[in-house]
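retry 2 of 3: previous attempt timed out while embedding 6-O-phosphono-beta-D-glucopyranose. Reduced batch size to 1 and resubmitted. Inputs unchanged:
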Amino acid sequence: FKKLKGELLTSVPSTQEFKEAASFYVNKDESTVSITVVGASGDLAKKKIFPALFALYYEGCLPKHFTIFGYARSKMTDAELRNMVSKTLNCRIDKRENCDEKMDQFLKRCFYHSGQYDSPENFAKLDKKLKEHEGGRVSNRLFYLSIPPNIFIDAVKCTSSSASSGIGWTRVIVEKPFGRDSDSSAALTKALKQYLEEDQIFRIDHYLGKELVENLSVLRFSNLIFEPLWSRRYIRNVQLIFSEDFGTEGRGGYFDNYGIIRDIMQNHLLQILALFAMETPVSLDAEDIRNEKVKVLRSMRPLQLEDVVVGQYKSHTKGGVTYPAYIDDSTVPKGSLTPTFAAAALFIDNARWDGVPFLMKAGKALHKKRTEIRVQFRHVPGNLYNQDFGNDLDLATNELVIRVQPDEAIDLKINNKVPGLGMRLDRSNLNLLYAARYSKEIPDAYERLLLDAIEGERRLFIRSDELDAAWALFTPVLKELEEKNVIPEYYPYGSRGPVGAHYLAARYNVRWG
Ligand code: NDP
Ligand code: BG6
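retry 2 succeeded.
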């Protein structure tokens, strides 16, 4: 099997590898995929997982034989689950034909089983139902753990009792957070590996499934004009910005235990950074890409306290409407110091990036929703046109903006002459706006990731050594922030965030874009 895939057999294959190999040879019509959404009554399942599964079904991406099971403690019949799910399904704007018919067909393949997350008996009953649906075909099973992290291990332990027993594969998608720090993450990995092999674990970071994040490698490695510029020689700083224009509404209980650094920076923004900064991988194979990501993460300096600014949003009244403070949320402990905003300066100590600040900024309840990568290039040496920018060199530098969301776009800011007889310079955008260029709706990140998990493609999932390297960068500073009870800078709901973020950037001669 490995030879067929052009890989070398370097070690004795694991049971999972044998199963993957066997299912590779089975005629797809003879096999079936059972997808169990564990925590099916929850927010993520309703908001993202079922709609993504339906979109895959609509696009004809699911195998011929598949069944979807919702599993949770809540009591529900199949009909009640279908009713709940039907409210969340949507056809793409550009594909409305047969929409209702497709939804009906999809819902008929959704079932529900109620049970406890720590009960092997309840999971054994699920296994029985799954077998009935599989009808003796080779059974491949995917479990999506869409539950709070404190019950991951119990659920994983039990899923092994309803794992595929034949030659089919069993894979488990695990949602973030993967621990709170290096130790808890290592403990979680160790516990997961008691029941699963590493290649059965699909740690999801949904930012990796976003169109423009996937496009990063294409932009870098298939355009001759960018890769030669992609280093300290030409890039002055890189900014990774995440902002939401709403607070933690409804998720305060979860959020307070984690804070914005763990919720966004350590995973979503750091993953983008790794893809942005890694060396060229040997191939597009999952392991080659993940090897490069680990290498760049391990070349990074652990974050220092003086390179971090934390903030928390406070109540603000605008236009007669009062927006609540973070601590007004009834699920947030009184006097909580948990940051809802953070800015940080990170550095990669390797030949390519030595001395280039990678600035991250992430916050909730800010003035707008956006996720962007901004690349500011160096000044043009001896620029003949400096006086046209009032000698403000920052105004004259090129900037590449990759807008991950909303309104996906790639903008390259260049200088040009204003047309006319005089000689005046202007800043313009070479702009690729996805909505204008492509009429097709962009699939949700969860669609891509679910499809990859079904197909056994691990490229967009986090390997355990990547996770260790990511936690090693943030754990010391997170501990220090907590031990020293660092008071966050308070910023009004809907504002641009704490002014401290500007002082931090200024220390590295950076202006936020
Ligand atoms: P929920 O809080 O909605 O929980 C999902 C389900 O788990 C609930 O419907 C409930 O089902 C069960 N549950 C909740 N609390 C407990 C508990 N204390 N003990 C046992 N069972 C419990 O979570 P979400 O759907 O919001 O998130 C699921 C996972 O995805 C989490 O790990 C979260 O961190 C992650 N995630 C969520 C995102 C989101 O936007 N919601 C975004 C990114 C990640 P029942 O009572 O029926 O058993
Ligand atoms: C999740 C965080 O991982 O990502 C949330 O836990 C955040 O706090 C969400 O709101 C943002 O995802 P998206 O895809 O809406 O940008």
